[in-house]
């Protein structure tokens, strides 16, 4: 009598841009590990996912575009790739389709697949921030998504209460990028800084418009702080596509600044930092997980600011505050983002003050709530997908 060979599960992953490709690669590694390699993985991805064995349905670069100037000329190709991806899923019949980030692309794929093949289970890894605005979109998602893999710990309660949608907290990828022990000391040694030298991180953003609006303001704030704190060191982590803009801007600063580039140097700088002044965004979570007390600032054009103020459904733009459910990190938006306000808020974080001690204690709470020290988020995400089989 011949032995019955168990069927190999089939997971299809769809990523539309580099951030999703990074998450998809980590998930593939975890899926292969959890199943001992007895799994079939198909879908759309970039270099990370291809490096883990994926044969992409099409080059992910076809959909990895940002802003109207890039999207509009390529829209016919993007729509064709969306149809091809959905058709591939319908033909291949995966046990689970996992859409990763890039909601404008991946959710259109998911809707199309659900409409034509409702038996295929769909998981959404990295949900749109529907809790911040357009909260009704959660109910719309529940019509075609079976499970959300949440990056933030408050998301499961939100999706359950708003849409009766199954949502599992797996953790934020920033947890896997927390600086290792000793990185801060090595950074300080490399730049000839004593262990007790105050070090201010300045992070004016990673998008061109962010940098243009904030880099001058942050430079003036750093200069005011340096005038009051002897020996203050300023470090500015940047990324390749805005480095030239940052370099030109800091030439006008009246204080010296150390520019660093790349993920490894950024992590090391975080580990060495005393405090940070940063643009609003995911960087606040990265700073918080690295236990760096911070002040957040942000400016956008007046029309966009008005629209955001009408749509926002959360009390803070700082993710750390939303997770802690209290206003721990001070934030200064639009006209409140002034040199005077920012310098006054950052100053007590650069020395051993009660304000700094409270900030660090809050960040320890953040790490506990987010499960730092537990299983890797990519492993929990893979397990949440395998549970759907």
Structural class: alpha/beta
- The count of helical stretches stands at 16
Shape: globular
Order of helices and strands: EHEHHEHEHEHEHEHEHEHEHEHHEHHH
Supply the CATH superfamily name of the largest domain.
Glycogen Phosphorylase B
Instruction: Note the main sheet.
Output: 6 strands, parallel
CATH fold topology of the largest domain: Rossmann fold
Residue-averaged pLDDT: 93
For the terminal residues, how far apart are their CA atoms? Answer: 28 Å
**What count of domains describes the coordinates?**
2
Summarize the structure.
The protein has 389 residues and is an alpha/beta fold. It has 2 domains: 10-171 and 374-386, Glycogen Phosphorylase B (Rossmann fold, 3-Layer(aba) Sandwich), CATH 3.40.50.2000; 177-370, 3-Layer(aba) Sandwich (Rossmann fold), CATH 3.40.50.
How would you describe this structure to a colleague?
The protein is an alpha/beta fold and 389 residues long. It folds into two domains: 10-171 and 374-386, Rossmann fold; 177-370, Glycogen Phosphorylase B (Rossmann fold, 3-Layer(aba) Sandwich), CATH 3.40.50.2000. Helix content is 48%, strand content 15%. It has helices at residues 18-34, 47-51, 67-92, 103-116, 137-141, 155-163, 183-190, 208-228, 240-250, 263-272, 282-289, 302-311, 319-324, 339-346, 354-370, 377-386; strands spanning 10-15, 40-44, 96-100, 121-125, 147-150, 167-169, 199-203, 233-238, 258-261, 275-279, 294-298, 330-333. The strands form two sheets. A six-stranded parallel sheet has the order 2-1-3-4-5-6, with helices on both faces. It has a six-stranded parallel sheet with strand order 9-8-7-10-11-12, with helices on both faces. It is globular.
